[in-house]
Design brief:
It is a single chain. The chain is α/β, with parallel strands linked by helices. The protein has 3 domains: about 15-90, no CATH class; about 110-115 and about 125-300, 3-Layer(aba) Sandwich (Uracil-DNA Glycosylase, subunit E), CATH 3.40.470; about 310-395, At1g16640 B3 domain, CATH 2.40.330.10. The chain is built from 14 helices and 14 strands. The chain has helices at about 20-35, 40-55, 55-65, 65-75, 80-90, 160-165, 175-185, 195-200, 225-240, 250-255, 285-300, 315-320, 330, 370-380, and strands spanning about 10, 130, 150-155, 205-210, 245, 265-270, 270-275, 310, 325, 340-345, 350-355, 365-370, 385-390, 395. The strands form 3 sheets. The chain has a 7-stranded mixed sheet. The chain has a 5-stranded mixed sheet with strand order 4-3-5-7-6, sandwiched between helices. A two-stranded antiparallel sheet has the order 1-2. A hairpin with a 5-residue loop joins β13 (about 385-390) and β14. α1 runs antiparallel to α2 (about 40-55) and α9 (about 225-240) packs across α10.
């Protein structure tokens, strides 16, 4: 007699189970704030999770608000006033710190997109969900794109609906800015808008997600499918043998690595080194630090940057003149005389005028005349560009 198969049941993921210390709560709030985009209900529900971990009755006493009112306001359907948010934040012993967001410091989050046919996040609770895949729909998603052995494996949390509709990874507003960031650090060259993942894979790299089920909000993912996705990611890393596992989101990194980690280098995953990108709204100094650390990791692990050659720091006068100045070490990569040279400036292919500025009595900094329009769009005052030799011996400035 055939044995009757039993259906495995998972409870919905509840972050409260993991918020056991002040450090956990702060890290959770930071991660959710980075991924919230323009969704205030996401932040409200995040504060609700922290409040439930601390004790909702205690919070009600400290804020002067009713327990029922707090549950309603700090939920996925809540819309608390700024006054309520400030009261809750102060009562929780936290503070909101304003920082300048930068367009280059962004990665995609499914919560930022709402596409017809994909439901909004449901209220948190202890409802049960089905087997692998959460709702068991088995609907369309984005296939894994394995890297070549030694390549970079880019890992997201789960596909965003706009990307599934487009048939390419990271095609939402924030996702497209992620591709610009990868160009900025030298991991992506000459991408075609709308199919950047093809160029990424053509360079020997790969893409996957912790969970393959697309949702309009990461909050819809069940605990069981997240845990299963972490196990499957470890198996993929063992099979594919990437040179670096690059996490886009903190939540995916924490689940896969089994601990709360910060942006930058992380512990090994199935024998492969890992790295977590900084969040989309990280402070500029922090994002620059993480980007520079990633370039250093790539130069060691991947050999993508053969030597640390940089331009002079770009000044306001340089931007106005449309020029980039090069020190002696960088001049060694260019011709000895005035000429037009093909370059790639942060993913954009250009042909520019080059002057080595070799004088009789002293040698000055060489000059690349790129043009004010291109330079202002791609470079900011105070930046130094890393110079390297890319495909077909074309100079890259990242």
């Amino acid at each position: 007699m055939a044995r009757k198969r039993t259906k495995e049941i998972f409870s919905r993921f509840d972050a409260v189970d993991y918020l056991t210390s002040d450090e956990d709560m702060v890290a959770y709030l930071e991660a959710c704030w980075e991924e919230a985009g323009d969704d205030p209900a996401f932040i409200a529900a995040t504060l609700g999770d922290i409040a439930r971990a601390r004790g909702m009755m205690q919070l009600a006493n400290e804020t002067g608000l009713t327990r029922e009112g707090l549950y309603k306001a700090l939920s996925a359907e809540g819309n608390p006033s700024l006054g309520v948010v400030l009261k809750v934040v102060r009562a929780l012993g936290l503070k909101l710190k304003p920082e300048i967001a930068d367009a280059h410091r962004v990665a995609e989050t499914a919560a930022a997109y709402m596409v017809p046919g994909f439901p909004r996040a449901r209220p948190r609770g202890r409802s049960k969900v089905g087997r692998r895949g959460g709702d068991g729909s088995g609907g369309p998603t984005l296939p894994d794109r394995p890297p070549q052995p030694g390549g970079v494996l880019l890992v997201g949390l789960n596909p965003a609906p706009p990307s599934v509709v487009a048939g390419h990874y990271y095609q939402g507003q924030l996702g497209r800015r992620l591709w610009k960031r990868l160009v900025h650090v030298g991991l992506l060259t000459d991408p075609v808008p709308g199919s950047e993942d093809d160029a990424f894979v053509a360079s020997g790299h790969g893409l996957t997600d912790l969970v393959k089920r697309p949702t309009s909000s990461a909050r819809e993912l069940g605990r069981g499918e997240l845990q299963l996705g972490a196990e499957e990611l470890r198996a993929k890393v063992r099979d594919w043998r990437p040179g670096l596992v690059l996490f886009v989101f903190r939540q995916a990194a924490n689940l896969a690595l089994g601990s709360l980690i910060s942006a930058g280098k992380g512990p090994a995953l199935a024998g492969a080194p890992t790295f977590l990108l900084s969040g989309p709204y990280a402070a500029r100094d922090e994002a620059d630090r993480v980007n520079e650390e990633l370039r250093d990791v790539l130069s060691v692990k991947m050999g993508t940057v053969p030597q640390a050659v940089t331009t002079q720091r770009v000044t306001a006068s340089d931007l106005a003149a449309g020029i980039v100045r090069l020190p002696r070490m960088a001049k060694a990569l260019l011709p000895d005389r005035k000429s037009n040279v093909p370059i790639t400036l942060r993913g954009k292919r250009l042909t520019v005028s080059y002057d080595p500025k070799r004088g009789r009595d002293r040698e000055r900094s060489a000059v690349l005349r790129i043009g004010e329009a291109h330079l202002r769009f791609l470079v900011k005052v105070g930046e130094r560009l890393r110079v390297s030799i890319g495909p077909n011996a074309r100079l890259q400035f990242d």
